[in-house]
Amino acid sequence: MFKKFNLQESISGQNSVKASVVRGIRSKLLEQNPELESCIDEILPKKANLVQTKCKDRIVLFSVNNEILFFQHFDDPITPTLHLLHRFPDILPTVQVDRGAIKFVLSGANIMCPGLTSPGAKLPEQSIPEGTIVAVMAEGKENALAIGITKLSTDEIKSANKGIGVDLLQYLGDPLWKTKLD
After folding, report:
1. Pair type for strands 133-138 and 94-97
2. Helix (H/G/I), strand (E/B), else coil: 4
3. In this predicted model, what pLDDT tens digit does every residue of 43-99 receive, in sequence order?
4. Taking the model in full, what pTM does it have?
5. Phi, psi of 24, deg, nearest 5
6. Could you write out the DSSP letters of every residue in 25-94?
7. Could you report the per-residue pLDDT of 140-170, keeping only the tens digit for each?
8. Reduced to 3 states, what is the DSSP secondary structure of residue 96?
């Protein structure tokens, strides 16, 4: 999604968000990710000055203190950035790819089912439904290398073992990862 993203060229508007809208975003985040309950006040304080940056291609960035915390594309779920995921690693369910998939993921390729079911890869014990935002971990690494959305449930990934399993939204080293707000 962010392969050719450039904040300076993409920005179309930026404004502070009202407190009532911040409450709505907080409740939407908690509804989407119940794991955020324990750290939502640290991530997005109630009195935070949340800034909404609208970009081309219907991408909206949400930031606090010039740090991009979340992004949203069209009406898709509000998604945490990798920077936020590295600070709070337990806010998303995780899938793990094998070592062979790392270089492809870091170049922005979607994750194929065999990369999630081979030795070295791990899928969670309990099933994750299709359309869930997940953190993509790598075999032998401690931090997430990408954030994606499941195209199939984890049970379907195990049984089919072909096709795209996770559609990448953001990965380490992409333009959003490198973007700093001033």
Report:
1. parallel
2. coil
3. 998 888 999 999 988 899 999 998 999 999 888 899 999 999 999 999 999 999 999
4. 0.91
5. -65, -40
6. HHHHHHHH-GGGGGTHHHHS-TT--EEEEEEGGGEEEEEETTEEEEEEETTSPPEE-HHHHHHSTTSS-E
7. 999 999 999 999 999 999 998 999 999 999 9
8. strand
